[in-house]
What does this fold into?
Amino acid sequence: MPDKPIAIVTGVGPGTGSAIVRRFSSEGFRVIALARSPDRIRALEQELTDTHAVIGDVSVGGGWGTFLEIEPKMLDRNFQVNVMGLLYLAHEVAPDMVKAGSGTILVTGNTSAIRGKANFAGFAPTKAAQRILSESIARDLGPRGIHVAYVLIDAVIDVPRMREVLPEAPDDFFIKPSAIADELWHLYRQDRSAWSFLTELRPFGEKW
It folds into this structure.
């Protein structure tokens, strides 16, 4: 189907990424799933109609420590991943969207994008820069008919690894990957007369 819509999902992990792939696949999209781990995305490729696995490293840079504790190269490495990675991806997908006069770019981030805790000096500045770059892209592409939104996830995502780390946490402490995917679908479907840019998601009991 040449007119079938295409969704590219980068960094497909066991939680949010996989849920997004499933959500858009269920809506009739041809989905390109990118991840470092071939097993997960190849399993999705086998499970879902017209889903295609592509091996690639677009991982999110992390790391903890105060500004006196971190190595400057940590901050630089995370900047290359979280900010330059977005820039390179936008360079690849935006030109065709501009030609078509439509399209959507959805960027997921976390609370570090708006809050620089002392122990996140090697990470938070890069997420803040990622959010600002997304806003710059949104202001440029919005008038051309392309919706760009930044989804700030203020929560612990419900994946097996985090359940192991926090075995005593109740179910409603976590955010469901499927719920995140539903919100991305909602953003994709927004009427162009009422586009969101910054969307914050958190469980109802989260203290913020």
In short: The two ends are 46 Å apart (CA to CA). The longest strand covers residues 103-110. The first helix runs from residue 16 to 26. Residues 120 and 170 are 26 Å apart (CA to CA).
